[in-house]
Design a protein that fits this description.
The protein has about 150 residues and is mainly alpha-helical. The protein has helices at about 10-25, 35-40, 55, 60-80, 85-95, 100-110, 110-115, 130-145.
């Protein structure tokens, strides 16, 4: 995943996403072991009642770790952009880069939605921005723990 930092970061991301889709060349996600991949792509709706986080992992914790990691990486990329951006511009551009629309494109590009396992009752919510963003943040949180 690359973070664009130009004045038109949203349009640049769209162009890169279209190019990646058209060429079939998408940078691979890091390899994750089978136990970890199950934790990343298992929705909280499948958590066993009474099950301990130690037994099954805790995606809610991974979401928080992933959010912090993605925010920090994006902020760092914007911080190092030349010419220097004002603090307010860094904040605005970070929000733009990490918008639900862009995250949805990344989730789609990496087929994350199709990999997510959930209870049938919540299947219809898999296209909601909240679930999409949580899926991406869970994946990023897991990568930090590798």
């Amino acid at each position: 995943m690359s973070f664009t930092t130009s004045d038109h970061s949203s349009s640049t991301l769209q162009k890169r996403t279209r190019l990646a889709e058209a060429s079939g060349h998408v940078p691979p996600l890091p390899k994750v072991t089978s136990d970890l991949i199950l934790q990343v792509y298992t929705h909280i709706s499948l958590r066993r009642s009474g099950g301990l986080a130690e037994d099954y992992g805790d995606n809610e914790r991974l979401i928080q770790l992933g959010k912090a990691a993605v925010d920090a990486a994006t902020t760092n990329a914007l911080f190092n952009k030349r010419p220097f951006l004002k603090t307010s511009d860094i904040c605005c551009k970070r929000e733009e880069v990490l918008s639900d629309i862009n995250v949805d494109k990344w989730v789609t590009l990496y087929n994350m939605r199709q990999k997510l396992r959930c209870h049938p009752d919540v299947f219809a919510t898999l296209n909601s921005p909240k679930v999409i963003v949580c899926s991406m943040k869970t994946c990023m949180g897991r990568l930090i723990k590798l």
